[in-house]
Amino acid sequence: MAKTKVISAKEAGALVKDGDTVLIGGFMTNGTAKSIVNEVTAKDLTVVCNDAGFQNEGTGRLLANHQVKRLIATHVGLNKECGQQYNEGILDLKLQPQGTLAEQIRAGGAGLGGFLTPTGIGTIVADSSSPTTLEGKQVVELDGKEYLLEKAIRGNVAIIQGYVADESGNIRYKGSTRNFNIPMASAADIVIVEVEKIVPAGEIGPNYVETPHIFVDYLVVKEEA
């Protein structure tokens, strides 16, 4: 079986281009591949992630450097820089329920156009005439019940943190770092995975592979701080 290409964090960061949609795993930076994120220099990015990280850490580093044009996330209260940029009109911020965002990404990885959810029905989000409606979400009636149509999300690049990879690019995660990393690894054109170590092909064992090598384009070995 062929080996997945191993590159440096700097080379990985250079794969992100101006205007890209970038999926970044992590939950309050737990499971965020910081060594790669720190090397991203592209601007006008649409970043899809669970949260805005902390100030100058994780996704917060990209915000602090004014590299993010649009942020799609589930909460941003841990990083006041995010709120400041939004209030100043610098940042286009779209907040989604956490389960909805996770399913949008999973749908993108599964090749689906979107999905129906009752979350948001009965709120201004479902009112297409409201000026606060996010992109005029479509209401669909099915068997007498109303749902919102949420579109799938895919990225140009996904920046993922794993624990261990084998030479073929199969990935195993550690504990809660799985979070958004697993669905994001299937939902981007280029998938870069930061890992602590790379082992020979087959050493992980098929029962412990959580992201198959078919999704992984590049590996980055995390450098010790």
Structure commentary:
18% of the residues lie in helices and 28% in strands. It is an alpha/beta fold and 225 residues long. The chain has an 8-stranded parallel sheet. Strands 6-8-7 form a 3-stranded antiparallel sheet. The mean pLDDT is 93.
How are the strands of the largest sheet arranged? 1-14-12-9-2-3-4-5
Helix content: 10-25%
- SS-based structural class? alpha/beta
Order of helices and strands: EHEHEHEHEHEEEEEEHEEE
The rounded Rg comes to 18 Å
The number of distinct helices, counting runs of at least 4 residues, comes to 6
Low-confidence stretches: none
Strand content: 25-35%
- Intertermini distance: 32 Å
Number of β-strand runs: 14
Can you give me a brief rundown of this structure?
The protein is α/β, with parallel strands linked by helices and 225 residues long. The protein contains 6 helices and 14 strands.
Sequence-ordered SSE layout with sheet pairings:
Blueprint: E1 5-6, H1 9-13, E2 21-24, H2 34-37, E3 45-48, H3 59-64, E4 68-73, H4 80-87, E5 92-95, H5 98-110, E6 114-117, E7 138-142, E8 145-151, E9 155-161, E10 164-166, E11 171-172, H6 181-184, E12 188-195, E13 197-199, E14 218-221
Parallel strand pairs: 1-14, 2-3, 2-9, 3-4, 4-5, 9-12, 10-13, 12-14
Antiparallel strand pairs: 6-8, 7-8, 10-11
